[in-house]
Amino acid sequence: MIKNYKLLLFTTFTLFFITFVSGSSILKANFYYKVDWENVQCFVPPCPKYTIQKLNTNEKSQKILDFIFPNGLNKTTLLGDESKTLIVLGTTQPSSKFPNNATDFLVTRVYKSLPLGNKQTSTDKYYMFGDNGTRCKTSPCPNIVAALLNVHSQEIINTISQPYEKNVGFLDSVWLSSKNIRSDDFGLIGQGTIKNGVISISNSFIYLPDPPIKCPELPLLKCVEGNSMTYSRDENRCLVSPRCTKFGVCTLSIPLCNKGYRLVSFPSTELNGCPKFFCDPEFVNKTHK
Questions:
Q1: Rounded CA separation 174/232 (Å)
Q2: Rounded to whole angstroms, what are the CA distances from 87 to 11, 33, 36, 126?
Q3: Residue 89 in contact with residue 32, Cβ under 8 Å?
Q4: Per the UniProt annotation, where are the glycans attached?
Q5: What is the number of alpha carbons within 13 Å of residue 101 lying toward its C-beta?
Q6: Are 147 and 128 in contact (CB under 8 A)?
Q7: Measured CA distances, 88 to 16, 68, 115, 184 (Å)
């Protein structure tokens, strides 16, 4: 009886998760696409410079004139050559400028690849990940659902292996790990290959905007002499838990960030008021200095 109930619970979750990641919970016409761009020159409009390719399929690519993005996104990181780093969820529609001979793309969600991933392999596919509810006393534990985007197919895996902690200095591993497995819309898309229960990610695509929620406003504390305001940083890169901390002895070394990343710091409670440094992707919103 208990075994059958667990099987029913797992099956129900699985069906829900496949529906969620396929985009059919929004509109049946919504699919995930990789974007490409070429700076072609045309003598007569319209002049579509973008193409989209439906993920995990062999369908023919489509030419796109314009993208219609949701409000609140920094479009300078999304258009032109930058668009080659995007995955978009949405649907095509007739162009507002040339309805009879051009196509626009109405974007529901947009994801951008983290710089300095690994070179993609011929076996890589695109996945999103969920928790299947399995709990184990030993590891590895097969508790991760890897759902193939645009395809009603999935695999159960035990490990998500990211390349970025090796490739990028001072990356916030808590921030990245929090995006691997989510129950909301804000999880990452992983391009990778599954073997023996492990997916080796070549590139991760981050949901935009990031963070997806507004950081909380913090009170301004009055600290006694010899103390200063310090913080922690949560999985959304927001400063939290302000407190007065006695000054510590700080090192003077300041790290350099890899290309595509910017240096940020904050007075850390963990480091007794000394600055804690991270290298955040340049395309995410700043949450502090």
A1: 12
A2: 29, 5, 10, 10
A3: yes
A4: 74, 101, 132, 285
A5: 4
A6: yes
A7: 21, 11, 17, 17
Alpha-carbon distances of 280 from 171, 177, 235, 252, rounded to whole Å: 6, 14, 12, 20
Domain range summary for the chain, segments of one domain joined by +: 22-110, 116-208, 227-281
Give the H/E segment covering residue 265.
strand 261-267
What is the DSSP code (8-state) at residue 224? P
pLDDT tens per residue across span 65-88: 999 999 989 888 999 999 999 999
User: What are the angstrom distances between the C-alpha of 267 and each of 201, 211, 242?
Assistant: 33, 20, 10
Of residues 134, 136, 147, 111, the one with CA closest to residue 16: 147
Predicted TM-score (pTM) of the model is: 0.88
